Structures are given as structure tokens and as C-alpha cells.
Task: inverse folding
């Protein structure tokens, strides 16, 4: 078991109120597995990823829960051990390359920094020649054309697709064992998106990386993962093998999500889901999806449902299945 | 009522930038029929948004004609258009977060077109607003809310109610569902479809999302770097995509089911990036990424080839 | 309203209720910071003192011309809280009347300068790329490029020195800042979709300027107005200090600081009083300004 998250709570504190975003999240990931996390924007998917690397913003706190990575509790590690992991073992592709790349530094400077610190952690002090050659190698891995020009450029001088490839390259440097991808293709054209996804797939297979792919785009998760978690408002609603989840969704939320996605092979989308995400300052006491659920019952409002195994490898958190 | 509500011929729009002249729309011709939904599909740099904005009057065309309802010339900028034209042609923008004034209540936002076009007498305005909100599926309490109190889907429904208020005939949907979550998107799509039937509206749907196109439009046009390369009725389009770019687009869509997978063309994969619009490739603009490119493709622009009724491709493969 | 259905009346009532709620919420946001409440109370207190100066000041007649050399140069005591000046006038009473002139100056200058500047800025920003914009912006640029105090003093020295002309001088150097502020905000909002939407629906220019663009900028403008109040006093005091503004015996705070400073350091209480008065007003408006900024900050 490479990663095991149990009963994770994450809150964002401000002067006036607390946002209780993650509400007891559970997740497990084996070596070499590719899992996905789906849910609408604001469900806490990015918060979850950032917790794994412990890069939550200053006002983010973890009052309860455990994140076991490689048999160590990430939340209790010393900062030097955590730094080693961040440099060599876990890499993250962030959602918006314009936000994740520093606009005032050239690509070369940012890339070399990451490479240098990783190599130093391995006890090796690289020369600039070595850094350059490694950069070229990485760029050819992500199929970046014209690597010399890219190294000399600032982020704004590159196209969206190229920026994303640079981000992937940077993430892969640190991703010795685990790759976290947060909406890696938002804002990209669909033809570019396809290339990027195929690239990620190829590299992940090549390096035998475990991956967590987070997205609200169901199609992408269907194509790229073996197992999926459905996250709604900070709660895990369902966990299953990808093919099972999409062909036989059990949780009402999952069912509505899948039904609402327009298809190419048929006409007609579902009715959508009425309402919106709860206010995290005052979230529902019971099941957080209750206010929007078409099958809501009394117990849903009062008590949060537990984990119910409906099938081999298929778990739902819903009172309907108790 | 004319059968053809909009007639665009040889439309060109260029923008001067520091890097050169961007030929955003470079010779685009099409018609839109009354009551239909025509989808204008393309990726970034295709010129589809610019086309929509020229029709709305946010820009004036550099060349070509746009004739509305057979008589009105839409090459005049918005400021110079008659109030009647402003009433009859409406737009729903992509980002509901910026298309509603954050400091105005929903009721004021919807009241504006009603008052400007005197659609309803002042003393009955609340009635009308409640009616419009109900029509898009929002309860009347939404009247007194501010945009920041609404979710993305709800904001977009308000934008749609605002567009419907003056009883237009023609609505441009400028990526109106692209910024929404899939659950809000479904609600908005269903609302749009229902409204179109009941109010006999004509939609020009500008989008990059072929899934949406499949579900709401009757005809599809593909744009690439300022030109139209294929147009067809929707079902025909998904069954027999002819242009290599169309095939590349379709094959790139991440699908959700085996049925959808089967629809995607096999044997073609997405390669390359969209070239600069300042110096577009010569001849067929797609030839730099096309796996089937022939010498003639870089020399001459391909002609219109009619493959089937209503299905036209511009590609040297077929001519 | 004649002919309004019962249904409509319900809506009108509901709207009134919601608007009241919104005001309450704004007040709540303001109340959160104790300092802002302090600022507001200080201003109200000073304002009341200024309005009812005749009743609040222990010696109202001392505000103007009053000579009682027997009582001159008396240090602070129970009868004269801040002592007396060289003519035997009660310093404290004069300061209270001084607040009156201070508020008058703030009121006049800002009510002249803010609306004009804002309207010109809206117009200049909305008509970007036209002749109108160029004229307005370049004109404000000219006024801004002159050092403010020098400008105020030059104007004041041309005109007859009195408090009214001092206010005119301050107004003339102040207006372009409001133009610039509004202009830059308008330019950044000008092409937002909601403005394009309003235009495409045929809204009149007046509507767009005042009902669409202005409401968004109101918070920033109001904050600036309150923070400016302190500066207006300061500049006004500077003008009076060099003798170009209110003339003695007018109990203007700046004039008083100037007059009485000649008697430092033995008769320290004389200039300390009015100076403290100036500081008090500026502090109060700054605290209020912070509060106003917080009210609009969340939006």
C-alpha cells in the first residue's frame, strides 16, 4: 500500500469563521495503481491533493486524520524528511500553469532549481552542463519541441500546451513514486488535451508511477484510471473500479453526474442536479448531499452514512444501501 | 417570417497587433435558418467567437456582408443599430461571473431590457420578472438576490432570462455552458432546448464542446484558423466526419462509455499545435498538421465539395 | 401606486425588506472593528460640537474679536481648560469653533471635488479613445503634475486671503485625483461582459455610467473621500498657516497654530490645542475610512 488516507478532516480558518471542507475522507492507493477523484469544482479535490504533500495554505489545518505514505505518517514527519519526499518521491501537476509557473523567472531557472535540489538530495551536486543535459532529456520525454528556446523563455511566451508540458516535466522530476495531477488539462484545446493525456499515460507506464488524477471531467477520468473515488463537498460518496462506477453508479450523486454528461452516441442529458454545494461554514450535519438528493430520507439529514460494501471493490456511502 | 434569418457572406475580420495582423475571421459564409440551432465549432484561434461578436456588433467587419431577416445590414457597429435590432438579437456570454453586474440585484438586471424596450408597463414589471425567472426554472426569491449569492448554473439561467426578456428572435450562445459544471450544464441545456421550442427561437451556438453540439444542434460547422472547413447536419456529422481536422477533433474527445468510444474515428491522432494566426499556413490552413496532406494542400485553398445533402467539406482529399 | 395588483405590492414590500437587510449587513460589517466605531463616534462628537458650538463652548464670544488683556496668557485652569491666548480669549472655545470651519472646509471641498471628479472620470473612461477622453485626462494631468501645495498656495496668493478662497484653492488642486481614480477603474471595467451586455440591450449612456459602472466603484470612492477629509484639513491648515487662508480673528485651526506658534515655548498651551484638534480630526476620519473600506472590502 503506497498511500492510505483515513478519516481526514481539513478546515480553513479565518478570523470570522471556519470552512470545514474535508469531512472524514478515506482513500487507498497501491503501487502502480492509477486512481481518479471526481467531483464538481469546490468539492475539496484540490484540498485533498495539497494535504498529501502538506502544502495547504497558511490557514489550512488538519484537526483529525491520518495520511500514511509508504508506511510513514505524512502529518507527523519532520520537515527534512518531508522535503526529501517532495523532491524525490511525490510530484504534482497543478491546475493552472500560469499560476504554478513563476512569471518573472525563465523556464530554465525554474527547471534547474527543481533538478538541482532533487539531485542534491541524492547526494550529488550537479554542474550546469549536467543540468542542461538532464533538461534536454526531460524535454524530449515530454515531447517539447525547440528545447533551447523554451529554456530561455518566460512562461507567458509559451503556448498553453507547451506550458502544460513544462509543468509535467517539472512534476516528473520529483515524482519518483507518486504523481498527483490536478485538472492537468483545463483550458487546453481538446486536441492538445488528447496529446497531453496520452503523454502522461505513456510516461506513467514507462516509469511505473502510481497516479492520482483529479478532475471534474468524467470522460478524462474514465480514460485514464483504474479505480475512482467520488468526492462531494468533502465527503467520499463512492469508490469503485472505473468501469463499474460509470456503468453501474450506485450513489445518487454519481448517477446524476453520469446521466448529466452529454454523450456522442445519443441525445438527451439528464435533468442536472438542483441546488449547489453547501456552505462550508455551516455544512449539513448528516449526509452533505442530502439537500440536493432526489431520494433523501429523514436519516440522511441527521446522520452521515457509513461505508457500505455493495460489491467486491465497490463501496458506497449512502443510507439507501444500508 | 423569412426562412433564412441570417445570411453571412465572405465575412472577414482582422486585428492589428504588435506581432502583425491577426486574420481572425478570413472569408466565412453561412446561413442560419429560422428556428434551428446552428453550432459553430472550433478550438482556440478558430475565429468562432469573433464571428459571433461581429454579428452582435461588438466589432465591425473588414469585409463581407451580414444580412438579418433579409433586410437589415448588420455590418454597423452596435452603437449605430436601431433599438429594434438590439431587441431582436441577444447574446448569452460564456462566463456568468462577469456577465452579470455584481452590484445589481437580479431583478434590476432582468428589468433593464424590459424597461429599455418597453416590453411591459412599469407597474407590471415585477410580475414579468417573476414569470421570466419561473420560465428558466428559478423561484421568484431569486429576484432580490445578488449574483454572488448564486451558483454558476443559476447565474447563467439569470443571463438567459435577461436575454429572453425583450422577446428576441435570434440568440447567440457564446460558449454559454463551457464554464459550468456538468450538473449545472445539464440544467441549462435542457432549459435552452425547452425555450427554443416554445418561443420559436433561433440559436447560434458557439462552442468547442462536441458533446453539447450533439445534444442541442441540428447543423454543425467546423472552423479552423478563420475558415470553415466542414458543415453538415448533426447526425450526419457524427456518423460521417470527412475532414481530417474534424476527425482529429472527434478522436480527441475523452468519452465516458463504450458506445461513445465506437463513434470516434480510428486511425487518426491529434498532432501538432494550432499555428499562429498572424502568418497562417498557405493553401489549406490545416495542412501543417494533416496526416493526409498532399502537395496541392499547401499551394491552393481547397474548394467546396458537396458530399451529401447539406454536407460540405473543403478538402483536397475529396476533389 | 395606482393600478398595482396585490401581487405587485407583495414584491414591493419584499424588496424593501431585503434592502433593509442589506443595510443592516453593511452596518454589521462596519461594526466589527472597534476602531471604526471609535472613528465614527469621534466624528459625530466633533460634528455635534461644531454645529452647537455656541452652546458647547464655555466662552462663545471669544471665538471672534474679543479683547481682555487682563486675562491674557493664562495657563490651563479650571475656568479655561486650555488656557487663554494673547488677547485673553479662551483657547478651548476657539478650538470648538475651529472645528466648525474645519467641517465646513471638508464639506465644501469634497462635495465640490468628488462629484465633479467622479463624473469626469466616468466619462473619460467610458469614451476611451475619443477626443473627450484626451481632453479630460490631459487636463487632469496638468493639474496633477504641479506640486499640490505650491499650486494651492499660488492660487490662494492670487485671490484675496480668506477662508472661502482657501477652500477654492484646495478644491482646484484636489479634483484631478478623483478623475484619475474613477478613470482608471472605469477603463478596467469598460469592456467587461456585463457592460457589453447592457450596451447590446440598448441601455442609455447615462444608465451605464451611473447604474452600472458607478455602483462598483462607490466603495473605493467613498473610502477615498473619508481618508481625504484629513488631508483637506491639513492642506487647508498649511494655507492658513502661511497667512493665505482664514485671517485672524477667524478661529480656523490652521490660523491658530500659526498665530500661536510665535509664543512657543513659554505659552505652549496655545498652539498645542489647535494642533491637537487637527490631529484629532484627521485621526477620526482615518479610522472611519478604514471602517468604510472594510465594509466594501468583501465585495
Result:
Amino acid at each position: 500500500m503506497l498511500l492510505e488516507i483515513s478519516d481526514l478532516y481539513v478546515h480553513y480558518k479565518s478570523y470570522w469563521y471556519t470552512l470545514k471542507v474535508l469531512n472524514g475522507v478515506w482513500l487507498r492507493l497501491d503501487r502502480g495503481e492509477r486512481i481518479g477523484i471526481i467531483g464538481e469544482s469546490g468539492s475539496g479535490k484540490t484540498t485533498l491533493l495539497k494535504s498529501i504533500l502538506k502544502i495547504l495554505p497558511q490557514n489550512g489545518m488538519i484537526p483529525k486524520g491520518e495520511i500514511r505514505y509508504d508506511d510513514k505518517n505524512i502529518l507527523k514527519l519532520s520537515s527534512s524528511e518531508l522535503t526529501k519526499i517532495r523532491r524525490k518521491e511525490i510530484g504534482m501537476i497543478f491546475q493552472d500553469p500560469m499560476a504554478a509557473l513563476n512569471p518573472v523567472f525563465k523556464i530554465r531557472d525554474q527547471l534547474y532549481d527543481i533538478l538541482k535540489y532533487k539531485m542534491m538530495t541524492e547526494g550529488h551536486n550537479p554542474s550546469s552542463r549536467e543540468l542542461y543535459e538532464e533538461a534536454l532529456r526531460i524535454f524530449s520525454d515530454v515531447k517539447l519541441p525547440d528545447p533551447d528556446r523554451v529554456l530561455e523563455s518566460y512562461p507567458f511566451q509559451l503556448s498553453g500546451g507547451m506550458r502544460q508540458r513544462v509543468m509535467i516535466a517539472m512534476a516528473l522530476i520529483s515524482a519518483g513514486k507518486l504523481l498527483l495531477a490536478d485538472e492537468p488539462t483545463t483550458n487546453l484545446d481538446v486536441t492538445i488535451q488528447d496529446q497531453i493525456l496520452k503523454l502522461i499515460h505513456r510516461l506513467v507506464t514507462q516509469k511505473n508511477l502510481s497516479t492520482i488524477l483529479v478532475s471534474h471531467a468524467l470522460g478524462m477520468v474514465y480514460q485514464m484510471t483504474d479505480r475512482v473515488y467520488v468526492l462531494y463537498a468533502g465527503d467520499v460518496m463512492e469508490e469503485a473500479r472505473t468501469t463499474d462506477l460509470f456503468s453501474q453508479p450506485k450513489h445518487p450523486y454519481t448517477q446524476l453526474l453520469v446521466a448529466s454528461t452529454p454523450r456522442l452516441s445519443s441525445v438527451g442529458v439528464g435533468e442536472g442536479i438542483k441546488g449547489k454545494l453547501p456552505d462550508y461554514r455551516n455544512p449539513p450535519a448528516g449526509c452533505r448531499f442530502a439537500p440536493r438528493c432526489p431520494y433523501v430520507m429523514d436519516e440522511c439529514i441527521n446522520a452521515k452514512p457509513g461505508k457500505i460494501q455493495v460489491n467486491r471493490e465497490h463501496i458506497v456511502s449512502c443510507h439507501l444501501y444500508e | 417570417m423569412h426562412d433564412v434569418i441570417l445570411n453571412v457572406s465572405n465575412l472577414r475580420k482582422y486585428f492589428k497587433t504588435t506581432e502583425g495582423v491577426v486574420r481572425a475571421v478570413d472569408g466565412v459564409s453561412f446561413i442560419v435558418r429560422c428556428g434551428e440551432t446552428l453550432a459553430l465549432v472550433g478550438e482556440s484561434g478558430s475565429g468562432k467567437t469573433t464571428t459571433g461578436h461581429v454579428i452582435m456588433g461588438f466589432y465591425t467587419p473588414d469585409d463581407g456582408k451580414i444580412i438579418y431577416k433579409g433586410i437589415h445590414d448588420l455590418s454597423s457597429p452596435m452603437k449605430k443599430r436601431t433599438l429594434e435590432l438590439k431587441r431582436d438579437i441577444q447574446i448569452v456570454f460564456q462566463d456568468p461571473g462577469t456577465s452579470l453586474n455584481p452590484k445589481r440585484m437580479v431583478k434590476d438586471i432582468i428589468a433593464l431590457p424590459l424597461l429599455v424596450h418597453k416590453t411591459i408597463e412599469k407597474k407590471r414589471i415585477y410580475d414579468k420578472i417573476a414569470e421570466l425567472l419561473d420560465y428558466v426554472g428559478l423561484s421568484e426569491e431569486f429576484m432580490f438576490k445578488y449574483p454572488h449569492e448564486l451558483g454558476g448554473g443559476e447565474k447563467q439561467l439569470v443571463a438567459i432570462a435577461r436575454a429572453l426578456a425583450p422577446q428576441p428572435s435570434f440568440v447567440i450562445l457564446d460558449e454559454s455552458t463551457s464554464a459550468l459544471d456538468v450538473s449545472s450544464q445539464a440544467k441549462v441545456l435542457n432549459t435552452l432546448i425547452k425555450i427554443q421550442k416554445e418561443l420559436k427561437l433561433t440559436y447560434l451556438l458557439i462552442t468547442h464542446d462536441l458533446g453539447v453540439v450533439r445534444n442541442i444542434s441540428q447543423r454543425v460547422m467546423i472552423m479552423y484558423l478563420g475558415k470553415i472547413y466542414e458543415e453538415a447536419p448533426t447526425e450526419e456529422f457524427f456518423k460521417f466526419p470527412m475532414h481530417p481536422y474534424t476527425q482529429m477533433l472527434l478522436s480527441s474527445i475523452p468519452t465516458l462509455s463504450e458506445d461513445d468510444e465506437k463513434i470516434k474515428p480510428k486511425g487518426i491522432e491529434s498532432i501538432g499545435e494550432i499555428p499562429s494566426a498572424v502568418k497562417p499556413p498557405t493553401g489549406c490552413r490545416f495542412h501543417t498538421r494533416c496526416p493526409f496532406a498532399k502537395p496541392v494542400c499547401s499551394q491552393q485553398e481547397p474548394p467546396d465539395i458537396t458530399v451529401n445533402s447539406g454536407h460540405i467539406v473543403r478538402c483536397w482529399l475529396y476533389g | 401606486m395606482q393600478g398595482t395588483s396585490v401581487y405587485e405590492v407583495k414584491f414591493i414590500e419584499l424588496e424593501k425588506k431585503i434592502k433593509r437587510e442589506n443595510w443592516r449587513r453593511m452596518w454589521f460589517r462596519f461594526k466589527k472593528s472597534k476602531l471604526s466605531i471609535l472613528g465614527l463616534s469621534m466624528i459625530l462628537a466633533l460634528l455635534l460640537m461644531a454645529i452647537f458650538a455656541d452652546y458647547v463652548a464655555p466662552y462663545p464670544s471669544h471665538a471672534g474679536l474679543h479683547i481682555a488683556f487682563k486675562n491674557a496668557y493664562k495657563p490651563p485652569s479650571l475656568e479655561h481648560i486650555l488656557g487663554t491666548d494673547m488677547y485673553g480669549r479662551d483657547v478651548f472655545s476657539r478650538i470648538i469653533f475651529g472645528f466648525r470651519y474645519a467641517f465646513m472646509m471638508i464639506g465644501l471641498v469634497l462635495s465640490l471635488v468628488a462629484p465633479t471628479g467622479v463624473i469626469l472620470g466616468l466619462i473619460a473612461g467610458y469614451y476611451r479613445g475619443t477626443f473627450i477622453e484626451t481632453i479630460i485626462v490631459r487636463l487632469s494631468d496638468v493639474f496633477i503634475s504641479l506640486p499640490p501645495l505650491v499650486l494651492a498656495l499660488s492660487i490662494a496668493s492670487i485671490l484675496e486671503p480668506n477662508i472661502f478662497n482657501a477652500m477654492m484653492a484646495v478644491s482646484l488642486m484636489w479634483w484631478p485625483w478623483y478623475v484619475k481614480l474613477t478613470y482608471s477603474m472605469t477603463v478596467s471595467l469598460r469592456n467587461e461582459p456585463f457592460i457589453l451586455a447592457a450596451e447590446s440591450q440598448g441601455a442609455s449612456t447615462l444608465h451605464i455610467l451611473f447604474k452600472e459602472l458607478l455602483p462598483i466603484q462607490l466603495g473605493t470612492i467613498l473610502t477615498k473621500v473619508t481618508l481625504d477629509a484629513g488631508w483637506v484639513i491639513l492642506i487647508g491648515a498649511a494655507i492658513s498657516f502661511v497667512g493665505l487662508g482664514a485671517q485672524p480673528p477667524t478661529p480656523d485651526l490652521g490660523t491658530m497654530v500659526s498665530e500661536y506658534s510665535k509664543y512657543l515655548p513659554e505659552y505652549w498651551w496655545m498652539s498645542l490645542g489647535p494642533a491637537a484638534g487637527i490631529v484629532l480630526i484627521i485621526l477620526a476620519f482615518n479610522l472611519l475610512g478604514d471602517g468604510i473600506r472594510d465594509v466594501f472590502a468583501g465585495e
Notes: Chain C touches chain B through 32 residues (CB under 8 Å). The two ends of chain C are 34 Å apart (CA to CA). Residues 12 and 18 of chain C are 10 Å apart (CA to CA).
